[in-house]
Amino acid sequence: MKDKGTAVARRGQGSVPVVSVVIPTYRHQDYVTKTLESVWAQTFGDYEVIVVNDGSPDRTHEVLQPYVQSGRIDRYIHQDNAGQSAARNRGVVEARGEFIALLDDDDLLPRQKLEWQVDILRRHPDAVMVYGRAANIDATDREIVPRGADGKRLILPGETPTGEVYGAFLQKNWILSPGQALIRRDVLNELDGPFDIGTALRGCDDWDLWVRLAERGLFHFHDRLALRYRFHAANASRDTLQMHRATIAMQKKHLRLTKNHPERHALAKQAYRAACLWSARELILQAYADRKRDEPELAWRKLLFLYESQPALFTHPMRLRQLFAAAMHLRRSRKASETPTISENEPVRASAPARGR
Fold first, then answer.
1. Tally of CA atoms within 13 A in the half-sphere of 145 that contains its CB
2. In this predicted model, what pLDDT tens digit does every residue of 231-247 receive, in sequence order?
3. How crowded is the C-beta side of 11, counted as CA atoms within 13 Å?
4. Domain residue extents for the chain
5. Which residues does residue 134 pair with via DSSP β-bridges, in sequence order?
6. Which fold has domain 19-235?
7. Cβ-based neighbours of 163, under 8 Å, separated by 6 or more
8. Highest mean pLDDT range out of 10-14, 163-167, 337-341?
9. How far apart are CA 87 and CA 77, in angstroms?
10. Rounded to 10 degrees, what is the CA torsion of 183, 184, 190, 191?
11. Looking at 94-98, 125-129, 182-186, 199-203, which range is the least confident one?
12. How far is CA 335 from CA 147, 316, 340, in A?
């Protein structure tokens, strides 16, 4: 291992890199330079940097131009706004490296991230992906304990599935952000996408990718810091209803994909039912809290979505009453417990069944 304080020289221009670092960027002119600097400070130097500007309306283009002109950014693509999934896909298409590191434009890589993850994939040729832990930072790069709008601490995934993880990842997204991982490019290229660009999956498109990758091989978890994830008000996972919508849509997608594989289809059914139960309880709980705060419009939107996504509940009043009772019991247990509770602003990452920007 190199010394922690030492960055190494980059590979020669024109040679094929070991790693392609793909950074989609949109409206993060204040963060993207720090993100790039965390890549350039890596102790592993055999990489290329691909930035996809997804039609950002701020000054991102102007901020990045000096680095494009100096060659520090190997490839810069400026496209019309098509969404983060499409921008990531474009970057993967442009990549030449053996391995792909997907990095969001407001997160930071620890200095040795690429070095130890490349080493693990070299030593574990049967693994399609390696991932590590994430630390949480605020807008000023300080490490924080993330909290929701209600002031309560958010519980992030603490368990770490490794090896054959298909069932575990179908039930829940164990990875806070794609930047925690390093993926084999040849496996990504086998996928149709690799990211689903449909708006229904926005916020869960990375979760969908992990499940499809887990079908193709082993994941290797290494208990080491792999990413500094930035919490701020613009995180897409704070769009509560969209995260519920994306969770249900993602589970329905895998019900369809597994219909010719009985064992996986049984797991997908189980995961879908768990997601529906989680969504119903959380939406009832949140609607009740909205009503108590005298915000009936928010409450109505959540109940309307519940009706649209699970209409059968409303034809079985007893089932709905049972769910309401369960939600109220959950509310009382959370209020009484001293254990940190989840916030409605980060439901998928913190809940039992299951991010994104």
1. 8
2. 876 555 557 899 999 99
3. 16
4. 19-235, 241-350
5. 227
6. Spore Coat Polysaccharide Biosynthesis Protein SpsA; Chain A (3.90.550)
7. 218, 219, 220
8. 163-167
9. 9
10. 0
11. 199-203
12. 16, 29, 10
